[in-house]
Every structure is written in C-alpha cells, then in structure tokens.
Specification:
The chain is of the alpha+beta class and about 500 residues long. Helix content is about 30%, strand content about 20%. It has helices spanning about 1-50, 70-75, 120-135, 165-170, 195-200, 220-235, 240-250, 290-295, 300-315, 325-330, 390-400; strands at about 55-60, 80-85, 90-100, 115, 300, 345, 355-360, 365-370, 375-380, 410, 425-430, 435-440, 445-450, 455, 460, 465, 475-480, 485-490, 495-500.
Length: about 500
Amino acid sequence: MKFLKLSLKFCLLVIFVMQQASAVNLLAQSALSDKKSDSNQIQEKIKRVENNLLPPVQTKGDPAANMNIIERMKYYNVPGVSIAVINNGEIEWAKGYGVREAGTNLPVTTETLFQAGSISKPVAAIGALKMVQDGKLQLDEDVNKKLVSWKIPENEFTKEQKVTLRRLLTHNAGISVWGFPGYSADTKLLPAVPQILDGIAPANTKPVRVIETPGTNPSYSGGGFTVMQLLMTDVSGKPFPKLMDNMILKKFGMKNSTFEQPLPQSFYEQAAAGHTGKAEKFAGNWFIYPEMAAAGLWTTPSDLASFAIELQQAYAGKSKKVLSPETVKQMLTKQTGGRGFGIELAGEGSKAFRFSHSGTNRGFHNNMIAYTETGQGAIVMTNSDKSDQLIGEIFRSIASEYGWVDYLPKEKTIVSLDPRNFVPYLGEYDFMGRAKYVVLTEDGKLKLKAAGPNKYELFAETETKFFIKERPGEIVFVKDAEGRVTEMIIYTNGQEIHLKKL
C-alpha cells in the first residue's frame, strides 16, 4: 500500500512537472512569436521610411511625391547614408545604405564612422557643463581668469562685458570666425590651438577675436567653441580627446566615437571617405580638424542616438550618468538668442519641443533631431557635403511614419503676381558677413541665388512672402514706411535669419 501511495505521488509529480514545462514552453513560444511580430513590424516601418521620402513643400493640388532612398541617393550623388531612429526612448532601428567610398563595394554599416562636423559642439558642451557641475569651471566667470596658454585679447568691446562660458556655449560672446575649412590629410604640420586662435601659421583661418560687445548680439561662432576647447584643456591639464573620451564618450556608451584628430589608423577600416557634391572622393579621404570641440568628432548615428537618449532620460529625471537633470534642463532652456547650451532648440509644447544640431565638414553632412519628452528622434549622417536636401527628405519620411506632426511637409498655395512687382526685391543681400545672396529675375520668374551656383525659383504666397519648393521655410521681404525693401528674412528649421539689402 505504501508503495502504491508513493507511486501515485510520483506520477502526480511527473504530471505536474510536465504541465509546468508545457506552460513554460508555451510562454517561450509566445514570447518568440511576439518578438518575431515586433521585428516584422519594425521591418515594415523601415520599408515605408525607405519608400516615402518627402519634399519640404506640398503645393495645393499637386500629388504627393513619395520617393525611394536609393533613387534619391543616386539623384543627389550621395555615396553613403547611415540612419538611426529613436522611438519609445530607445534605438528602434539603425541601418546603412550605399558605400563608404565611391567606386568601391565597401558597404556603409551601423558601425561606419562619419565626421560629425558641428554636431561636435553639443557633445563638447556636455563636457564643459560636466566641468561646471564638478566646480572646475563657472558659467558666468570671465574665461580669461582660467585660460593659461592663451588669453582673449582685451579691446573696446570687452571693457564692460566679458567673454564667459555661458556666452561661448550660446554663441553670444561676440566672437569672430564662423567655421573652419579643415586641413588636407597630407598636412605635415598642424597648428596648435593658440596658433588657430591667433590666426598665425600654420593656421589657415583669421584670428579669433571679440568683434561685438559680449552678450548683445547672438552670432554663430566656431571660434568661440575653440576658445572653450582651450579653456577645458588648460583647466584639466589633459588633451581634449582623452578628456572627452573619459568624461563623456565612454559614459554615454559611444563606443565608435573619438575626438582624435588626425583620426587614428585603427579606425581607418571603419571610416567613411568624404566626397564632393559630384561624388568625387577628396584626396586622403578626409580633412583634419584640430578645432575638435567645434568640428572634430568622428561618430556614428547609433552613438549619437545614445547621446540623445541620455539627454532625454536626464531631462525627464530618470538618469544622471554624466549631468544631473537640473543641469540638462538648464542646457535645454532657451538662452539669449533662442539657443540652448551648444544645441539648437525648436518647437513649443511637450510633443513638439526638440533639440537638434546639424553638422557639415568638407565631404560630410549630417543632422540630429530629438524630442525632449516623447522619446523620439533620429540621426542621419552622409559622406557627401551636398546632401542637405536628401537628409531633409529622409527626416520628413521618418516624421510621417512616426507622427512628428510639426516636421511634415507644409502645404502651400501659390499666388500669381505681376513680374513688375518683383522690382523692389531685386539686388544683393548680406548673409552674416560671409556671402551675398542675390535676388534676380529670369524669364519672368523671381529667383534666389545663394552662395553656390544654384538658383531657386521663389513662389509667392502673398505680395511679400515667398517659398522655395526644394527647401523648407519661408522668405519674407521687409519694406520701410516708403515701400523700399530693407531686408530679407529667411525662416527655416526654427531659425530666423536676417539678410540686410545692400
């Protein structure tokens, strides 16, 4: 009897174990099925993004122009593109297209490095803010008090107001030198940062100087970020790449990123070559940028996505890997001129407020956009310096798929104007002291010629408000009380650019 009872208990135990195993197996199969379903859904999203590239403007009555990414890359002569998309606070997908170098079959992958250009600035800004948080720097102190190896020359503009880190970070320090052309890969002798700042050989740019009273007139300045680079190295006593690697890149999980200039040979097989707008590779594959904080970062869209996600998490109070939530909120608060600390800000309200930065070095063009509260965003990087229109088309496709309502093409209605009304608009307009924009007529059409060879037709919405079909934004001509045109204002990507008529 005792044996029978034990046998019965054993049989019941076996049945129970088999039932549990079956349940576990069913759960595993269900999880696998869910994972497969999620993967299939993401693949469908990717396909829709790839086949739904959109122009910046949709004119009323015209059919939607859905375009394919590979076809548009060929149209714009862009050899390679890399994309990372953020959704629900994580990288939902990343993918490479085309080749690292024109004329080869070397594919762009998610680990292919691109020069970030000015997207270096927000990453460098995190480093400066970390030093503020640690008490090594102060936002509102005269930077000359901490600079050691070089000082900002005092002049009539600095008598009352001083150059501070806050003003450098927000492009509001009155500092000259908008950007840097880089140095060819075969350059034997690169300038030290003080030589760059003084504009002396072998530097290839003008001296970085205070040309306006600090704090009075926001003006974009790569020169200001180069001053910040020197400030950080003087105070820390460490080379900038090593400082940023230990303080920022490693902690953000940016494993395929470096500020090293020139690029170490160990990265060569991962790096994309830079190309002209005709898909011609630059000699030596890329240019060198010792102005590292302003333009020297090599990285991938996935690494920049990790960077953006950490800012989103810290802004929400859910992370403090490097900066406290309070510091990140300060970074993403509009300062004088509308920028944050090293970052562009746009949009209103919890669903639209976003941070962004574009970046262009010779041979590379990129953009990063991330929403502070929705957990969404994307990064697109290319190995062509004439790919801004393609990047815009890709972003609008992502916006359409992921519901970024404020980033979709704008519908416009064209108004017919008598060409005689164009006369007051004709002439030259000063673009930030760096170039002249020309408004002209050809075959009865009003056109705008920017810094390059291209001319864009201006389509009228009103007598003074126009748009370009190939570009986002609006162009408004401003008249004085006597009806004379005094300036042209370009509204684009949350920015307002004033060009005085010459």
